[in-house]
Specification:
2 domains, single chain, 8 strands, globular, alpha+beta, PH-domain like, 4-stranded mixed sheet, 4-stranded antiparallel sheet, 186 residues, 25% strand
Length: 186
């Protein structure tokens, strides 16, 4: 087995709208509820509401392009403790402003779900998953990505570079030797 580093650290800029895993997760999180709503609106012939939803999607897309450039700047650290996933400083600052606005506007408008979404989003800016918590690992060598599943709401996507994917995969496998983990490849 090749020599394993004590620690691997890198940062990467990931396209939000071109990454298949991000698009799949957005499809599940947004597509399912809005799909049901759109189906209901089509059945009830609420054309105006459908147009409003389409405009909302367009403005959301433009907002993401304007604020973040359609990219996600993320860093990763793998060491003996676990896997740390964190938002890079410049993007974290933008996220903090947006998330704080969501909390404030949610509270002022009496919409606790909006405030809660802002709090939840801010809490996920720096995540550590310990090796002992990991239950499932899925490797995607073609897209240079690894999905890590641990406990409830402890899931992260590790985006690698073409230069470090093999090292990251080897490191993860090394740290999980002897543990009952479901390893799959996509």
């Amino acid at each position: 087995m090749p020599e394993i580093s004590e620690r691997i650290e890198w940062s990467i800029r990931v396209s939000i709208f071109r990454n298949p895993i991000i698009m799949k997760q957005l499809g599940i999180a947004i597509g399912i509820p809005f799909g049901v709503l759109i189906l209901f609106l089509i059945i009830s012939k609420a054309i105006y509401a459908l147009v409003l939803i389409a405009v909302l999607f367009l403005f959301t897309y433009l907002f993401i392009l304007a604020v973040w450039g359609g990219k996600y700047d993320v860093g990763f650290e793998l060491d003996k403790t676990g896997i740390r996933n964190y938002t890079l400083k410049n993007q974290a600052k933008k996220n903090r402003i947006i998330n704080t606005m969501a909390v404030v506007f949610g509270l002022l408008s009496g919409k606790p779900a909006v405030a809660g979404a802002g709090i939840l989003a801010q809490s996920r800016q720096n995540i550590l998953i310990k090796w002992s918590s990991i239950r499932k690992v899925k490797f995607f060598p073609k897209s240079q990505m690894v999905m890590i599943r641990a406990g409830f709401a402890e899931n992260i996507a590790i985006f690698c570079t073409s230069a470090n994917y093999s090292e990251v995969e080897s490191y993860i496998r090394f740290r999980l030797i002897g543990k009952e983990i479901l390893f799959t490849s996509g």
